[in-house]
Design goal:
Blueprint: H1 5-19, H2 26-40, H3 44-53, H4 58-64, H5 73-80, H6 83-95, H7 97-107, H8 111-122, E1 131-132, H9 133-143, H10 148-165, E2 173-174, H11 187-193, H12 209-222, E3 232-237, E4 254-255, H13 256-261, E5 264-266, E6 275-282, E7 287-292, H14 294-302, H15 306-331
Antiparallel strand pairs: 1-2, 3-5, 3-7, 4-6, 6-7
Length: about 325
């Protein structure tokens, strides 16, 4: 059956617009290139060649508009704190136990926390992202006004990174937000915190678990991780007075003595004078109250979300408990 001509034309247009990514905003790209030339002495011709091949990605724009952190806690938790990820975390802990213990010894960050970060970010390296970093960052830098300044900064950092590492800018892949490697470092984090943990002369967070592990540990230490400190403590509300202390900021600001005055009972002992963050989470059946300490805040420096930090913490605890159960069973 022969389709009407208008249907054929419409179909061709639909295929052409969906199959091929759109070009980037030329004016914005030209301004950015001039900035890189003036500020960092990049070669304008080389950058024009790179950006001629970079594409605006609608998939990236769609993905960033529906982050998992917009979910209620009980649904968000199901994404990350599930049996498969716990078992794979225990396996990762066993496979790289020596490296993880070395990182814990040198940086003070528990092996299970490092493992949980990599588990939440990329399922222990199994899903490092399939978007070209140059496409993701260019799309967000030039076509996502809500956070354009941030992503232009990351695009700048990315080009500096690829020049320093002598890497082709079009070659690296990552997440829809331009995060890279097993621990999903954005370019600025890579340049500031990624390390060559095994001393082989390269800092490879894509394929080298040693560098990924060491880089996560270094990131946490540089952001103020307190060795031996608690992350979060469950709380119990005996009245609704505590709600006036629940805020959107993430840094601990409530003195532990204020908890009792405002109807919160900590589930574990917290030292006098400690500052905490009261965290209210939407459970499947009722509200969950948690008290985040300084180390909880440090986890939110990796991803500025209380849901993310709680998922990392709870996954780390489950991994550790699974490891201990296995060791106990083996000992019997």
């Amino acid at each position: 059956m022969r389709l009407p001509e208008f249907v054929v034309v419409a179909t061709i247009i639909l295929i052409s617009t969906s199959a091929f990514p759109a070009a980037l905003d030329k004016h914005a790209v030209d301004e950015f290139i001039q900035h890189m030339v003036d500020t960092h002495q990049f070669n304008a011709g080389e950058l024009h060649d790179v950006f001629k091949q970079a594409k605006r990605s609608q998939r990236v724009l769609d993905a960033i508009s529906r982050p998992a952190e917009a979910l209620p806690w009980y649904k968000y938790r199901q994404l990350f704190v599930r049996q498969e990820r716990i078992e794979n975390g225990r396996a990762f802990l066993g496979r790289y136990g020596g490296l993880l213990q070395k990182a814990e010894s040198e940086y003070g960050v528990p092996a299970q926390i490092i493992t949980a970060i990599i588990g939440v970010e990329t399922s222990y390296g199994a899903n490092k992202g399939n978007d070209r970093v140059i496409d993701a960052l260019s799309t967000l830098a030039f076509h996502y006004p809500q956070r354009a300044d941030f992503f232009r900064g990351e695009l700048e950092q990315y080009l500096l990174l690829t020049r320093e590492q002598n890497v082709e800018p079009l070659s690296l892949k990552g997440s829809y937000a331009g995060a890279m490697g097993m621990p999903q470092f954005i370019p600025s984090s890579y340049r500031h915190y990624a390390i060559d943990f095994d001393g082989d002369g390269k800092t490879d967070i894509w394929n080298n678990p040693a560098d990924a592990i060491g880089s996560v540990a270094n990131y946490f230490k540089q952001h103020g991780w307190q060795p031996g400190g608690k992350v979060a403590v469950p709380g119990q509300a005996i009245n609704s007075q505590y709600k006036k202390l629940v805020t959107n900021d993430l840094e601990p600001s409530v003195n532990v003595e204020q908890l009792y005055e405002n109807g919160i009972l900590p589930g574990e002992e917290i030292a006098p004078g400690t500052r905490v963050k009261i965290i209210s989470l939407e459970g499947a059946d009722s509200e969950e109250i948690w008290l985040g300490l300084d180390n909880f805040y440090v986890i939110t420096r990796y991803n500025h979300s209380k849901l993310y930090a709680m998922a990392v913490y709870q996954l780390s605890e489950e991994i550790l408990q699974q490891q201990q159960r296995n060791e106990l069973a083996a000992g019997q």
